[in-house]
Amino acid sequence: MRKFIVALCVGVILLVSTVGAVAESNDAWIPGLASFVIPGLGQLINDEMDRAILHFGIAVALNVGGYYAAALLPIPYYYSYPVVGLLHLGWSLYSGFDAYDVAKAQGFRFGFVDNGIGFAVSF
Prior knowledge:
Elements: H1 2-24, H2 29-37, H3 41-45, H4 49-72, H5 77-106, E1 109-112, E2 119-122
Antiparallel strand pairs: 1-2
Helix pairs in contact: 2-5, 4-5
């Protein structure tokens, strides 16, 4: 019981001491996660329409073209279809990192406005 109380106190102290650091950090992970889930969405959030269309178009081309090629090639399906999935995963990771990097450079923030009534997105 004693160890639990000590661990709880240390956890609370660490949490309270990091609240200020968390509040001042930017929210660049939001476009990064959005672009990982749907490539191009993070770029759209970052207000980069041309890159958003490009990232989404490449993701669609990888999926459609990859599965079409995998169906036509004389390679067994258990080899070809996972390769297409890995290509899409690689592109999603790159797209998410790109959106995160741009949002971090722009200082992306997402949160409540000063009067507490709405949301604000600032770059």
